[in-house]
Design goal:
The complex is a heterodimer of chains A (about 350) and B (about 250). Chain A folds into 2 domains: about 20-140, no CATH class; about 160-335, 2-Layer Sandwich (Heat Shock Protein 90), CATH 3.30.565.10. By secondary structure, chain A is an alpha+beta fold. In chain A, the strands form 2 sheets. A 5-stranded mixed sheet of chain A has the order 2-4-5-7-6, covered by helices on one side. Chain A contains 11 helices and 7 strands. Helix content of chain A is about 60%, strand content about 15%. Chain A is elongated. With about 250 residues, chain B is α/β, with parallel strands linked by helices. Chain B has 2 domains: about 5-140, Response regulator (Rossmann fold, 3-Layer(aba) Sandwich); about 145-250, Beta Barrel (OB fold (Dihydrolipoamide Acetyltransferase, E2P)). A 5-stranded parallel sheet of chain B has the order 2-1-3-4-5. A 5-stranded antiparallel sheet of chain B has the order 10-9-8-12-11, with no helix packed on it. A 3-stranded antiparallel sheet of chain B has the order 13-14-15, with helices on one face. In chain B, strand 1, helix 2 and strand 2 (about 40-45) form a beta-alpha-beta unit. In chain B, helix 3 runs parallel beside helix 4. The radius of gyration of chain B is 22 Å and the shape is elongated. Classes of the chains: A alpha+beta (about 350), B alpha/beta (about 250). The interface of A and B includes residues 177, 261 and 289 of A.
């Protein structure tokens, strides 16, 4: 385990945080403002004037911070291409330059009020930037084991033994009467379990996820026959969009387990995936049979996926599940990402 | 019915999945050499099982636990109330909860995929063994039944719990009142209260009323100790509220 993966990794082991991520932006704002507040308290002769000192520091610090975030989001790809050490140095140099531009633009107003020369300001900027980056580095290290844990946990939750044994039973029943179908079903199962049991660390293209879910549904159709109807709406789907691996199949499995199996007549599962501007929207619907008997397993799978979305996308992904006119609906939104060319 | 046929155990296959039913058919066909038998019919859920039992004589039911609408466990609880119930062999692919509950209550089951030898053994002892007791089935069930079963002239009739207005104990029986009519069931009111605690409320020592069948409360000084009676929706019946259950009136008003 040589490389420690950042939580905001897209596909490779990038360690500088992704400054386009809303969560990272918010965290940067909070850390920098806390540092400014600490500075204000230290500079002030007493607590009462600390507020005033904070305003002085903030009038300088806030524009620098916001301009930096915008710029860093823009040049993210070049920074990532440099490697970690070089990108940190570049970032520090950039911050000092930006501080210089901002203090010049203020026309010496800041230097007069704060009573600081530019070397002092530059040092301060380097310090604040360094602490912020160190915080992100620590945070990603702290979360790296969480990713591993979540993966293992995910893996265990994925293979629903109910599905495994029922499928094997279904395949056995086919061997005598329809050997071809039995072969095909076993091939699908092999593919499914290969993915279920592999290391699933990086994001996967949604196209592969859809393929996997289709194979899963083929096996389920064997058992459930005409009770299981599936409608795919994929016209707006960019097949190259990257998503957390094994996200779709468990959702579909949930839909079948809770929406189709408990009903004698069965029903329809609808899966829609489309791009919505900078986001990827995934919606899954299934009927709610009976008087709402939803075992805890349902919520567990949902919580599991929510956690993984959070680990991969922080505040930029959302997941909502609700009952709507007798149907259960899960809606997921996440940033539309593609593999770097 | 010929003598020879009545000698042979008559078997009903119950599973919601067609391949699982086919598999059992194949296996039973293989059993025939060593264990002569007849396959009566197939059922896809608990309701169909009871329908077949009302129609045909069945000696052994191969009963899947997880089935839609009325699952195996609920069907078994209805079957257990029959005067001459068939033997039940439960089958399941995997159901953590059910398996644990079955172990605890010493109920036998077969794991799918089922092996021929295990099926033969289970068939062999099915008819000799005492039927699974109602109490054991009740203890193994993790959820209330969706129906009460009424046994009339040797047939099972299902009354959906959702349609019951109230349950009233009288001597040996409990009267089950729906909007259409009354039924008698052989159950204990205390047990029913425990099982359906979320849907029914006790208004009197001998009476449970469905929470959503309560239209309101009226003063009724003559018949009721508490001075109140509960009005049942869709009927003009008023049931007395006892002094001990007087708090129910406040809770609903």
């Amino acid at each position: 385990m040589g490389n420690v993966a950042s939580i905001n990794q897209t596909a490779t082991g990038i360690r500088l945080p992704n400054f386009c991520n809303l969560g990272i932006m918010l965290r940067s704002l909070i850390v920098v403002n806390l540092l400014l507040a600490a500075g204000a308290v230290m500079r002030a002769p007493d607590l009462r004037s600390a507020g005033f000192q904070f305003v002085i520091l903030a009038t300088f610090g806030e524009p620098v911070l916001i301009l930096s975030l915008v710029a860093l989001c823009g040049v993210r790809r070049w920074l990532h291409a440099m490697g970690y050490a070089a990108s940190v140095l570049a970032l520090l140099a950039f911050e000092v330059a930006l501080a210089w531009v901002v203090s010049r633009a203020a026309g010496g107003a800041f230097a007069d009020r704060a009573g600081m020369g530019f070397p002092q300001v530059a040092l301060l900027v380097v310090f604040v930037t360094g602490v912020t980056l160190a915080y992100f580095d620590l945070r990603s290290r702290a979360l790296a084991p969480a990713i591993a844990d979540a993966r293992i946990q995910a893996l265990q939750a994925r293979i629903r033994p109910h599905f495994l044994y029922n499928s094997i039973n279904a395949v056995i029943s086919l061997i005598r009467s329809e050997p071809r179908r039995a072969e095909h079903a076993l091939e699908d199962m092999a593919d499914l379990f290969r993915v279920l049991m592999s290391e699933n660390r990086t994001l996967a293209p949604i196209g592969e996820e859809v393929q996997l879910a289709r194979q899963y549904l083929e096996i389920e159709a064997l058992r459930l026959g005409e009770r299981l109807k599936v409608v795919w709406r994929l016209e707006g789907m960019p097949a190259d969009a990257l998503v957390p691996p094994l996200m779709l199949q468990p959702l579909v499995e949930n839909a079948v387990y809770h929406g189709i199996e408990p009903s004698p007549e069965g029903g329809e599962v609808t899966i829609e995936i489309r791009r919505d501007g900078p986001q990827l929207a995934l919606t899954l619907e299934n009927p709610v049979p009976g008087e709402g008997r939803s075992p805890a397993g349902n919520r567990m799978a949902i919580a599991n996926i929510r956690e993984r979305l959070q680990l991969h996308f922080d505040a930029e992904a959302s997941m909502k599940s609700e009952a709507l006119d007798g149907r259960w609906r899960v809606a997921i939104r996440m940033p539309y990402l593609t593999a770097p060319a | 019915m010929t003598l020879a046929r009545s000698d042979v155990p008559r078997i009903l296959i119950a599973d919601d999945e067609a391949p699982a039913r086919q598999r059992l058919r194949d296996l039973l066909d293989e059993c025939r050499e060593r264990f002569p038998l007849a396959i009566v019919d197939e059922a896809r859920n608990g309701r169909e099982v009871l329908d077949v039992l009302n129609r045909e004589k069945v000696d052994i039911v191969l009963l899947d636990i997880r089935m839609p609408e009325i699952d195996g466990l609920e069907a078994a609880r209805h079957i257990a109330g029959m005067p001459d119930p068939p033997a039940i062999i439960f089958t399941t692919a995997f159901d953590n909860y059910a398996i644990k509950a079955f172990e605890v209550n010493a109920i036998d089951y077969l794991l799918k995929p089922i092996r021929l030898e295990r099926l033969l053994a289970a068939l062999g002892k099915a008819r000799a063994a005492a039927p699974v007791s109602r109490e054991a089935l009740e203890a193994a069930a993790n959820q209330p039944r969706r129906h009460l079963s009424v046994h009339e002239r040797g047939k099972i009739h299902l009354v959906p719990v959702a349609e019951i207005l109230y349950l009233r104990a009288e001597l040996k029986y409990v009267t089950v009142r729906t909007a259409e009519r009354e039924y008698l069931v052989e159950e204990s009111l205390t047990r029913l209260e425990e099982e359906f605690a979320s849907a029914f409320v006790r208004v009197h020592r001998n009476c449970l009323v469905a929470r959503n069948a309560i239209a309101g409360f009226v003063r009724n000084a003559e018949e009721s100790e508490s001075g109140w009676a509960v009005v049942i929706k869709g009927t003009d019946e008023k049931l007395p509220v006892s002094r001990r259950q007087h708090h129910v009136v406040k809770q609903f008003r």
